[in-house]
## 1
Amino acid sequence: MPQLTALDAQFLNIETATNVANIAGLAILDGELDRADLQALLGRRLPYVPALRRRLAPVPFGLDHPYWAQEDDLDLDYHVREIGLPRPGDDRQLAEQVSRLHARRLDRSRPLWEIYLVHNLSGGRTGLYTKIHHAAVDGIGGADVLAALLDTTPEPPTGREDPPPGMGEAPPGRDEPPPGQAEMVARGLARLAANPARAVRFVAEAVPHLDEIPVVSWLPGAGPLSGLARRLAGVGGVPGLPALPAPRTPFSGPVSQHRRFAYVSLPLEEVKAVRKAFGVTVNDVVMAVCAGALRGWLAGHGGVPDGPLVAGVPFSLREAGVQEPGNQVTIMIAPLATHVADPVERLHEVRGAMRLIKDRSALAPARWLREFSASMPAALMGLAARSAFALVGETAPPINVIISNVPGPQLPLYVCGNLLLTHYPVSVITDVSGGVNITAFSYNGSLDIGVVTDRTMVPDAWELAGHLRAALDDLLNAESSLPH
């Protein structure tokens, strides 16, 4: 029977009026999409996507993490909605509407997702905004939810058996029902009794990884202690990580209830030209473009800090070919060379930082986030998580920005026969992560980037998005000046 992991439950526990754990995507389609057609497609595809068929089943008194219960009578009229923009239906109007939708919490008495069809876009386009709670999926799982709506040809199958491309011919079996309330309580009490031993085990296992854990890594002696613990455990060749106190910026600290969203598409061939010219990876270029954009924005809003910003970079812990439910993700911290003026030097600084954390993760996978969550008593997690978020966000935010790069399919895709033009991620900002999230998704020759900001910290997200284009241009200009 499916039960939320401790990490899944954390995404429920951190939610407040201002910290909202929705992850989403904005697809822009060529042509008009009818709501009835979309609902019919979903009706055929839902059996293949368990995350869309589950609702929360809380444990009495909060003694344990909730379970998932399969929802057999899914109300598609509730989950699939439509709205229309006033003319002219331009990109700024669309982004403003998405900003409002993204800040709203999902109804926990229902399956934790919603889809909005947005009509009246200029050029005869249609917007498709899909959001789902982070407790149900991580970034990779969220991509599977999007994939459930997509076809590789403009003529989708119309029969009752309609598997999404790449998801197999047969849908997963039914979930087992969650236990009754008495059994839930008994299991919760048993888990509570085991928590002290689990917490002790986590502390022992965490010592070799102290330099990975935000805030803790700043403590005097954390780096040498974790290095000594690794050597005593016979774990060699693991590079140490530098202590990275995050400088204060205009987007540091607790976020408000209000969001701003903007987006930009960059040609993937231009990103690859920079990659090839300087011998780096596509992800290095994406990170360097984000560093350049943040530097450009900061230069006009209070000045660029003398040291690097600190980026939180999500990493998937999923093993290739293994489909596990829930969140299989951790976050690593990396210096973002915003203090470096030269774009090529900045790119190589970013490359070195990303190589370091990838080497570290390959040799000793960073599972501290999942293990820390599992060591906390479920009955205390909600209050502890919200209190810790408020305290850390107010006093010592460990990172300045979240940056993520998700590779996507490089072929044209369709929704109910309508070509998918672009797909922009719409992600999470919190008190701890700061008021900016930049997430990129590559699709069919384009790098589609979604920028989410806190309205009070970065009122014009489009300005920051514009700096992304300028930062890539700086690298392209440097590439064109190289001898060929």
Note: The longest strand covers residues 22-30.
## 2
Amino acid sequence: MSIFETLESEVRSYSRGWPVVFDRAQGSWLYTEDGTPYLDFFAGAGALNYGHNNPALKQALIDYISRDGVTHSLDMYTSAKRDFLESLDEVILKPRSMEYKVIFPGPGGANAVEAALKLARKVTGKESVINFTNAFHGMTLGALSVTGNSMKRGGAGIPLVHATPMPYDKYFDGAYPDFFYFEKLLEDSGSGLNEPAAVIVETVQGEGGINAARLDWLKNLSDLCKKHGILLILDDVQMGCGRTGPFFSFEDAGIEPDMICMSKSIGGYGLPLAITLIRPDLDVWSPGEHNGTFRGISPAFVTAAEALRTYWRDDELEKGTRAKGARIGEVFTELVQRYPEANLIAKGRGMARGLEFESGEVADKVCAAAFDRGLLMETSGPDGEVVKLLPALTTTEAEVEQGLQIISESVDSVLGR
């Protein structure tokens, strides 16, 4: 592995916790060069909701490449883009009575967020955006300005401005009413709060520590934004595409954001793709006012469309995600009860689950113990104190049980039982 340490930047991270060379992958499994299998409960940080090299998506991709389908097209019209847009409209938007225009901002989630922030400011003529404590929205400067983590913000090298953080759900553990501080600042002419163009929020904060907002909190936030004429941007980059159960993570809350940011699993196969959905009346761009060289990656359109048709014409995937997520929650709750002195906290929704420890050091030890037993999972939270699970939604029930057994053994080995 010396070539990686010699030539690759010190900024690399995941490889430090998993010091092996992976060679192939299928479903919920990654295999090293010598064939050692690892059960993957990381799933590309949520970019592989349908697993590695999903057969249905792989065949569609192979067929497209084999016939010399267009690969790179910027924002030109292609048959692949048409197929994706038609599938998105037919399978996702129309059944939910949702009307949105689609921006293709570039290949990653930060691109989707940047487009939303930029458009919100253009539409409203206001500069300020409200974000939330422990939020994560990306590593480019605009997205980083609405991100909470101090380590990530510290890499910017310049002041991150035009964003004001507010307490996320349960930040004060119920000591104050929801939005007590936010609403007070909005209504007090002496508060000094710049009138916001938009609020950006995650329904479940993945990088922030698997903090799942209550559905009532999300509904009340939506109502607050409408009351004050503030645009609501929903960052569904990691929690969308079924991660919490329904296709959009906010569906159970019964809200309809003004803008929706999606990436990661929207491409289906792990290929780079991002979209920003916007209300039609917000589409005030001039041609070319926001663009990017890699905003038209046709192989990703192909696998994205196939994923929608394969998994979202019925509710089977959603039901399976809810059931498997509930099972993970049960086992995490059992671990909390097994070690009352450790002050563990079970967190999450759907198949975005976390187990919070008293420190990042302990969580790291649990992940290392799991890796030694053949399971990949990462940590999240302000101090890396949460063991974070994002298994592929196609992970079988038997694989879920296998992973949970490894996690239980790993927690036992670290906490001493």
Note: The CA atoms of residues 126 and 176 lie 29 Å apart.
## 3
Amino acid sequence: MLESLKNMKSISIFNENIERREFHKTMRDIASLSGVLNELSAKQMYQSPSEIIQFLRMLELLKLQAVGLAEAIDDEEMLLSRYCEYYQEGVAPSNERVKQIINTLSKHSWISKESTQLKLLDRGKRMIDSLIRLANDSLAYHMQDDISRLLYQAKRDTEISEAYDSQGVSGDHTLASMIQNLEDATDQIESRQLEFLADKNALPQLEKIHFLMMELDKKLSERLLEEEVLNQSPLISRGKSSLKKGTALSSSLLNKYNRFTLMKDTPLTGNISLEKVRQFIIAMYEPPNDSNIPNAHEILSFMEQGLYEDEVIDGIWLPIKFTAPISHLDIEESIDYLENYEPQISDEDIKQSEILFEELLINQDEIDEAFQEASWQMTKAMISTDNVEQYLENTEEAEVEQLIIESASPGWGDSIRTMLALSALVGNHRITEESKKAVQTYDKEWEWINDDDRKFTIKQYNPESKSVNDVAKS
């Protein structure tokens, strides 16, 4: 058997070629499951569990007739009648709801609506089995307490790994999940030892934890042996150490609880051995897991249980040194000192430093250029002028109408945006305009209100021919 495990190749969707026909069929199965759940989901399903259980019950009825445990179901009306017969508690679904579910299942190839009956297809059988198994697993998980849930899930992972991994079908890292759940449960048990020891009714839970841990010891040991054969060595040492720690911790906690519960019936002796007391105190600091020696926290946790009359007022003497009390006069004097404290500073400690002033001259033209550049950058942030500037760089000079149409389009909207860009460029002295008597006419979707407005030639501004101030004046 071990030799066959070595040669076994695990079937996993993550290792298959996505071009294979089987892979495409698998993805369609998953898509159909998603489609069914998506079409049947509604807001009320999240607010009321009755909507979900009605859906699952109808799937169960279809499955029962498919496996021969119930008579055939002819149509939606018979399915609703069968539902009311099998499940008498709760509210039955409406006719519209049953028809919706049947139509959705038929649409996604879970069932076929034949002339004589509703027949469950292979895809529907597998998807329904998966859904019901998921629901039952969730119910079993939530019926456990917070620590037993982790141990239950670890045990469930071993069973899944045994059912899938051992048969050559990937269980999707069930061994790693099992070990992680075991480690988390062990950490919780270790951090809640005092709570268990102080709880007089914790014995059933401790016995349950110990039983689950012993089951895991057996199952995990078998799985680790098989995984070691399958050369998954990185998990082996981690799994063995986690299992050893968890089993030892559960046994130690169970023994401690039993011992502390019976401690009140332990006979007392009149002779005290100083050496044994010293050794007991030393061992209390770091007692091993398999030891019955309690530490100081565990002893103090048992002081207030009230197992017998007046136990809650008992105590333990500890040598603690307290500071001497402070009178109210000393406190008032300290507060007054802190509120009114003024440090004494002599004149020699204060050094007079000479204040130096620096004169900075800035050219008026540089200020004008800086303000103009800042204004231009703010304008460009709101109005796009790139198309016009790029066009003028290539042509150097163009008529207004020619520039508007060729830099953008003959459309009305683009023309408006180009006119805004021209206005921004003229206002910031980036281009110049000159009047012209005769200009060309272009095909466009709009017309000038005043025909003289188009009789201008636009060219880039040349700073050598004219200063900025001159342009501003013009």
Note: The chain is about 60% helix and 5% strand.
